Amino acid sequence: MAKHALSCTVNDEPVEVLVQPWDTLLDALRERMGLTGPKEGCGTGDCGACTVHFDGKPIASCLLLAMQARGHEVRTIEGLGKPGALHPLQEAFVKHGVPQCGFCIPGVLMAAAALLTENPRPTEEEIRYGIAGNLCRCTGYTKMLAAITEAAGATAGRRS
Amino acid sequence: MRRFELLLPQSVDECVRTLAQQGPETKLLAGGTDLLPQLKNGLLKPARVIDLSGVAQLRAIESANGQGLRIGSAVTARTLELDRTVQGRYLSLAESGALVGSVQVRNLATLGGNLCNAAPSADMAPPLLALDAEAIIVGPKGERRVPVATFFTGVRKTVLAPDELLVELALPATGPNSGGNYLRHTPRRELDIAVVGVASQLTLANGVCAKARIALAAVAPVPLRATGAERALEGQRVTPELIARAADLALEVARPISDQRGSADFRRHLVRVLTRRTLTTALARASA
Ligand SMILES: Cc1cc2nc3c(=O)[nH]c(=O)nc-3n(C[C@H](O)[C@H](O)[C@H](O)COP(=O)(O)OP(=O)(O)OC[C@H]3O[C@@H](n4cnc5c(N)ncnc54)[C@H](O)[C@@H]3O)c2cc1C
Ligand code: FES
Ligand code: FES
Questions:
Q1: How many H-runs (helices) and E-runs (strands) does chain A carry?
Q2: Dihedral sign computed on CA atoms, order B37, A41, B59, A23
Q3: Which ligand approaches the C-alpha of residue A39 most closely?
Q4: In this complex, is the C-beta atom of A67 within 8 Å of any C-beta atom belonging to chain B?
Q5: What's the A137 CA to ligand 3 centre distance in angstroms?
Q6: Homologous superfamily, domain B194-287
Q7: The domain containing residue A64 runs over which residues?
Q8: What distance in Å separates the CA atoms of residue B139 and residue B149, rounded to the nearest whole number?
Q9: How far does the CA of residue B55 sit from the closest CA of chain A (Å)?
Q10: Per-residue model confidence as pLDDT tens digits over B16-62
Q11: What's the CATH number where A67 sits?
């Protein structure tokens, strides 16, 4: 079966790669572009480890075919911040020592970054809702909440 | 994932032509949140997949003559959750969209995919039944309209022929004295499937109920309306006692099964509770 040429923007750079019709966006990012930040936890939309931004919105990249990204803008954890110029969320995650094994963290950061873009001062409830699609098997949610709250400049425990 | 050929049409016409040429063994792909897991686990083994994401028409939301609303089949659950018009006039649909999966799933999951996948628990189906929505379907012979209440024919089965495409959902105007609500019960609040879901819509005129709609999910092979309960409300002043009676009557159409999510008895209990709650909220919203 013929491969398709996928043209899209990844982390602000135009890319063109050959993909199989059945490749997911996650496959294309990891296997064809060397972007291994997004992880495959479940492959079925349940864990959020594969979260990337698609035209600025968080999606499960394991559920999108690579070719469905044609003409779209994709951002992975590799394009969120750079060493020396980390995103405020990354700074806060380092400061609070959030990661344990780290497998879920790229997905959590991308979900949290999308949340803060839409809602710069979320309540605790809104943060919980925003990362509800991200599973951490090392039970890191408490520190995640603290770090996201701090990065948002919001007061911990604020509800409205 | 098993191998397949991928086709990328850019218009509804091209899509219908492509479907007609390809014959069976062809699956349509919208958000992929139902289809991709089914392709990955081998439940489905199509030879060809037609991607709908290039068809811009399917993503439009348009006010029809300032009256009702037409929602493209590929509008996402997340868009329905946030859209001001949907929140304002069809709140139960926005509420159901907000309950689907996680935000990562809602940004992909489409309204049309939810209906065409035809799970008994599909969250966005009951609000459409309660809103008297119609499905606009296009095939080789042109367009036809089917009430969403008769769209489903069984578990994972709909009236769609293999060469047909669900294009839009047409929602009639609701009017100022109308209010609705969708609630579901799940053990986990996020990322869970409804044990029971109920949508209610009440329209008032001169203090009495002019129109009542109650639709149930996950208590029968297809989402369905509780017409006996609706009739008990229509023409009456809606009191808490009448709501309680309607909630009892809603049980008449429920044919729940027992499974790992809940027993049939628990589901019957939930029908009563959720019907009462959604009617109470719908009444408050219609009166506001
Ligand atoms: C983690 C997770 C959580 C979920 N949670 C929920 C939930 O809480 N509530 C809920 O109701 N669902 C839930 N779902 C199921 C799914 O997300 C929804 O049913 C979704 O709306 C399906 O839409 P889609 O665009 O992804 O459909 P797809 O997977 O693209 O398609 C589904 C089916 O519909 C057909 N189809 C799609 N569009 C058309 C069309 N226009 N015309 C004809 N046929 C078409 C496809 O061929 C396929 O058979 C969940 C799924 C996941 C992975
Ligand atoms: S790998 Fe995509 S959600 Fe788990
Ligand atoms: S840090 Fe290990 S899964 Fe979250």
A1: 5, 5
A2: negative
A3: 2
A4: yes
A5: 5
A6: CO dehydrogenase flavoprotein, C-terminal domain (3.30.390.50)
A7: 4-79
A8: 20
A9: 11
A10: 999 998 877 899 999 999 999 999 999 999 999 999 999 999 999 99
A11: 3.10.20.30
